[in-house]
Structure prediction request, 615 residues.
Amino acid sequence: MKTSLTAILAALAAPAAAQDILLPPIVVSAGLEPVARDRTGADVTVITGPEIERSGDTRLIDVLGRAAGISIRSTGPMGTTAGLTLRGVPQTGVAVRIDGIDVADPSNTQVAFDFGALTTPGIGRVEILRGAQSALYGSEAVGGVIDIRTHRRAEDGIEQRAAVEYGSFATAKLSYGFAAKSGPSDLAMTLSHIRSDGYSAADDTPATPNPEDDGFEATRLFFAGGHEVGAGRLEVSGFVERSRSELDEFGPTDGTPDERGHATTRGMRLAYSFSIGVVDNTLEYAFFDNDRQLRGTYDYEGVQYPSNQDYVGRRNKIGYLGGVDLSTGRLTFGADRTKESYFVDSGTPDGHDDATNGVYAEYSIPLTPGFDFSLSVRRDHHSRFGAYKTGRISAIWRPTENTIIRANAGSGFRAPSGYELYAPAYDPISPAPGNPDLGPEKSRTYDLGIEHRVGAATLGATLFRADIQDMIDYSFATSTYIQRAGDARRQGIELSATYDVSKAVVTGNYTYSDARSDSQLDSSAWQATTPRHMLNLILAGDLAQGWSGEVALQHAADREGLDDFTVADATLTRDFGNGTEAYLRVENLFDEDYQLVRGYGTAERSAYLGVRRTW
Prediction:
């Protein structure tokens, strides 16, 4: 690390090369309508398609894990459960969208998106929106939003992409993508397949040997397109994935053979945009469907019992968004209705559904040429617990051409899941774990940040805080879900730096997190371990004619019940011209032995060789 830091400091001291002036990127997640990043006070990190491709990573969550404030919680190899914390807020409080589709699974015990099977082929852009965003996105957006966009062509023409990769754990990956654009019409799709023998999800140690492998196989199709229809524009996007995985389902080490999981996941969104007079309008319909089956055995006092579990989660949403320019600013407003249902059969079939109706509005106003302000409000009415109101105030000030100051305050909520509300008793003498009297978890978040550009370097610092109340917890004493008294707090500081010259980019971020809770929690997601100190350093650039590389270093320290770790990944790329590249990616370069979740394994040093072509 000393050598790396010395090299980075030396690079920062070098004269800055002349830079092209680039327009600020447009972000789609920060408000009800897209906005330039330098005109919104929302704290957003944008990860572009070329950055994802340059890293060579297969799992998208590994790309996300290098962003400030994110800590990965992975329970084994690809295909096993993987989530994250965002500024200490667990996965249940982070909303995830793919091309505008809410992909959190309603059939989970707590509604959340599982990143374990999501690979990078076809991903064109990711936005990480931090802070409570329920005023924009409703439930689950307690600590932020991960907005994922698939690849689409920006300019007229036809583009094709193909890639093949093979490496450690007999991992093979294939993908093909097609994108075309002609004037206002465009079409894109990406088909990908991956299979891997994997490694043991349960950590394999001399004290607890567990050498069996947990494999994974999946095929995914992304599609998107748009076309002018009548006086408006019709947009469609969606995906379908079939996967098979081997899991240590009933605990890290239960002594039984691998359990097996099969899943089919589908989603689609239709949107029609048109204008009537001075009002811009968008009508949308979206659905998400996830069918999972778990098959296997579990060991109880030396006797093996078969286990068959089926889970079905569905979500349907209809909505309207309108926007109008006023004399002083822009007003956007709308309404939506979301119906979620879940079905679980683990011996006792059970299913329920709930509906949420929401109305919302956002007013954005440039108070001065250097100061923008926005106010967002929303009211949701849940069919079980009733109405809940949320809001967000966001401001950005540009005192100089090179300095930006952002400030945000917002409230959020997480509606209890169908399982938490309605789960039935497992046998005639057991209490039902579901509790229909549960209300939402509530949050308030605040952040204040500054960005300053000095030549080719951009420096940033952000203070953040989140206060959470009415946490939902499964009580071991009562064997049911309850609302805990007390609250939890997450606060800290994020520091970032980027040095961008013509042939190299150095980026780094450091997050200090202080997590506290005065509630006695048995199994709540708010018990998730977050490193007190997290450091990421990435060095990427050209090495010689036709050669480029990237080295990513991550250090996590002061994790409750877990050791510190330092992990490095490296990618070397050879550009043959004509859109053809070959690359070698080495993960866990120094063969670090570490855990992201207590009891679950991570990969040893592994290598992958790939070839990709764009034409």
Remarks:
- The helical segments are 2-13, 49-55, 60-64, 134-137, 418-422.
- The longest strand covers residues 303-325.
- Confidence is low (pLDDT under 50) at residues 1-21.
- The first helix runs from residue 2 to 13.
